[in-house]
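Record filed below.
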Amino acid sequence: MARKRDSDGVNVSRRNFLKSTGVAGVAATVVSPARSEAQGRPREFGPGDVPVRLNVNGRQVDLRIEPRVTLLDALRMRADLTGNKRGCDRGACGACTMIVDGRTVYACSTLAIEVQGKKIRTVDGLASGGTLHPVQQAFCDKDALMCGFCTPGFVMASVGLLEKHPNATPEQIKKGLDGNICRCGTFSRVFEAVASLSSRGTRTSAGDLEAADAPLIEEVPRG
């Protein structure tokens, strides 16, 4: 092994030289919390649990969660509100759709800490006094569900759509639901259910239903 001769004529191996310089470098960069505070720098803390207060379905929900926790995880895993489902977990399928201050959002890509002070509505809070919400009832009447996994998201997207457009046209219905995916293929029945609730009294034609089978899923943003 090649050796380096220092000024005093002492042979130093390359391995020992690298080890000694490496240890010295690490020692120079490690500063204890006490020394850090003594030098006037604040102590560093990781993103641990913080208090988060949410208004969900008209009720206050107090949680202690990390800032990185999504609205979907906060409600499903911490508040036991499991109505909305996790599908793609990347804001593409719509199964987790909720309504926040009147706008539909993907809960899997919305941080819980960001919606404090806002009114959050989930599928868990739609039924009242044992009576289904009109949209939920329409989905049952029109058989607009198969496995049901995507249904909560479709229901919430439909509620948001009809509250914004009570006289929804076929085109508005298609656009309002274009961010939701049903892998079982019940798009036409979902379309019928929503159309049956439109104040316009929308009639579904064969062309409307055929178009509803191919929703414009590329338009992912909600609202």
